[in-house]
Amino acid sequence: KLAMRDQRELVDMLTEKEVRVAKLAFSHMDVNKDGKVTELEAKKAFSDYFGQVNMNDRRRCSVIESYARHATARAMALDIKDTGAVTWPEFLNGQAKFIIGVRPNPTQ
């Protein structure tokens, strides 16, 4: 149901806290703080993140590279204007349905 809604409507449904957390994630990837995340910046951020996973086998490197490659491709797919970088509005628009989707269900 969320995927069928307009992106702007989904962004408007986000709480201030959800927007702040999303901005923090975006800022972590925006290494040079120019307001855009390039593929290189995304790859570094995801490699660092997945590199923290505790895996004690010899496949660790290839698994981390695979996860980072997949996450980077997903992040760069948000580059709607095809500029080679993802802007904050593109990031927030692209992530809104996922942010809303992981909200806990209210108890009745």
What share of residues are in beta strands? 5-15%
Distance between the termini: 21 Å
Count of discrete alpha- or pi-helical segments spanning 4 or more residues: 5
**Main beta sheet: strand number and arrangement?**
2 strands, antiparallel
The total strand number stands at 2
**N-to-C SSE series?**
HHEHHEH
User: Looking across the biggest beta sheet, what order are the strands in?
Assistant: 1-2
Domain EF-hand: 17-52
Organism: Magallana gigas
GO molecular function, one term: calcium ion binding
Protein name: EF-hand domain-containing protein
List the topology elements:
Layout: H1 7-13, H2 16-29, E1 36-38, H3 39-51, H4 60-76, E2 85-87, H5 88-101
Helix pairs in contact: 1-5, 2-5, 3-4
Task: Please characterize this protein's 3D structure.
This is EF-hand domain-containing protein. Residues 17-52 form the EF-hand domain. InterPro entries: EF-hand-dom_pair (IPR011992), EF_hand_dom (IPR002048). GO terms for molecular function: calcium ion binding. This protein is 60% helix and 6% strand. It is globular. The chain contains five helices and two strands, in the order H-H-E-H-H-E-H. The model has no long low-confidence stretch (mean pLDDT 88). It has a two-stranded antiparallel ribbon. By secondary structure, the chain is mostly helical. The longest helix has 17 residues, at 60-76.
